[in-house]
Amino acid sequence: MNSMTLQCLVCVMCLVVLQAQAEEAPDVRQPLRFEGYPGAPEFEVVPRKDELFFYPCAQCHETMEPNPEIRTLNTMHDAEIEHGRGRIWCLSCHNLENRNYLNTLLNELVDFDEAHLVCGGCHANRHKDWYFGAHGKRVASWQGDRTLYNCTHCHNAHSPAIQPRAPKPAPPVRAGLERQPGIQHEKSAVWDTHVEREEQ
Ligand code: HEC
Ligand code: HEC
Ligand code: HEC
Ligand code: HEC
Predict the structure, then answer these.
(1) Is 45 in the pocket of ligand 3 (CB under 6 A)?
(2) Which of 42, 52, 158, 191 has the fewest CB atoms in 10 Å of its CB?
């Protein structure tokens, strides 16, 4: 066997091995099923469904053919969403067949009261922080049962950026004291660029 044939043979064997590996390799694009974070304390979430004007969605959608086409809607719903700056659409979060439910990226149905499971699919870091109490807000006290506000309590799911708010006026000065000159918290230049100030 000359060296040319040997090289060819090695090459072919490599290809065969690579081919076999490619067939065995798992599909890396398949997202993992979320099963909670180990060690996270138990909690309940403040319900949301009662706050929704359009719920139950089936009142109308039961009799409608679902339409997966990405488009500008012509209804009383938000016609388009700011969220994701054009990279996501209604059906990234809402189930196509069963409108009363949201869905995860694995197409699992999610109740509107558990919306955080949908948010967590794309914002895993915040979701994890929220599980452990470093993002969001716990209702009532630091002790006893742990009840958390859902992501949708603070963020509008369709336009989630938190809007700037005008600061409250400073508290009154205690009797007998005078306000120190030069301190004007409520006139902070940062806020003035965001918020139209109310006359006081
Ligand atoms: C009062 C009737 C009504 C209710 C209640 C309603 N919808 Fe709709 N919805 C419509 C109509 C009409 C359209 C079609 C709009 C168009 O084609 O421009 C639509 C379209 C949609 C679409 C776009 C996809 C499709 O199949 O056309 C989504 C997503 C959607 N609705 C979600 C919801 C969700 C979620 C709820 C409940 C929280 C809900 N809707 C409740 C009337 C309703
Ligand atoms: C990022 C995920 C996401 C996307 C994308 C999204 N939604 Fe929603 N939508 C939600 C969640 C979560 C709620 C529940 C909000 C709450 O609890 O306040 C909701 C609520 C609604 C409601 C009920 C609002 C109410 O107050 O009754 C309608 C109707 C709706 N969505 C339609 C749509 C339509 C139409 C689109 C596309 C144009 C869309 N959604 C895109 C997550 C999403
Ligand atoms: C399918 C993926 C997806 C899901 C589900 C999703 N988001 Fe987002 N979200 C995005 C993308 C993409 C952006 C835009 C990031 C950017 O442009 O830098 C974004 C941006 C945001 C921002 C920053 C907004 C801003 O303008 O600064 C917040 C807050 C947010 N999402 C909250 C939520 C909440 C709350 C939920 C659940 C109701 C949710 N997201 C569900 C994909 C998703
Ligand atoms: C108690 C209210 C509250 C809850 C609950 C909450 N957030 Fe937030 N979130 C905020 C505030 C306030 C900010 C900071 C906004 C800013 O810096 O402009 C923020 C920031 C964010 C950002 C970053 C936005 C940016 O501009 O970079 C993301 C993403 C986000 N939250 C996702 C979530 C998700 C997902 C959940 C649920 C698992 C959640 N939040 C629950 C209040 C909340």
Answers:
(1) no
(2) 42
Q: What does the pLDDT look like over 154-177, one tens digit per residue?
A: 999 999 999 887 777 778 889 998
Could you count the other beta carbons within 10 Å of the beta carbon of residue 115? 21
Ligand 1 neighbourhood includes 67 CB (under 6 angstroms): yes
Decide: 99 in ligand 1 pocket, CB within 6 A.
yes
Q: Which helix (H) or strand (E) holds 110?
A: strand 109-110
Minimal-distance CA residue to ligand 2 atom 41: 90
**CA–CA separation, 73 and 56 (whole Å):** 19
Candidate from 126, 128, 147, 150 with most ligand 4 atoms within 8 A of CB, to mutate: 126
Dist CA 95 CA 32 (whole Å) = 19
The pLDDT score that the predictor gives to residue 57 is 96
By most ligand atoms within 8 Å of CB, the mutation choice from 59, 80, 93 for ligand 2 is 93
The percent of residues in the chain predicted with pLDDT above 70, rounded, is 77
Closest atom of ligand 4 relative to the 149 alpha carbon: 5
Q: Which residue has the tokens 């065969």?
A: 16
pLDDT tens string 43-87: 999 999 999 999 999 999 999 999 999 999 998 898 889 999 999
- Kindly report the pTM of this predicted structure: 0.86
Alpha carbon distance 116, 34 (integer Å): 12
CA dihedral 88, 114, 103, 152 (to 10 degrees): -20
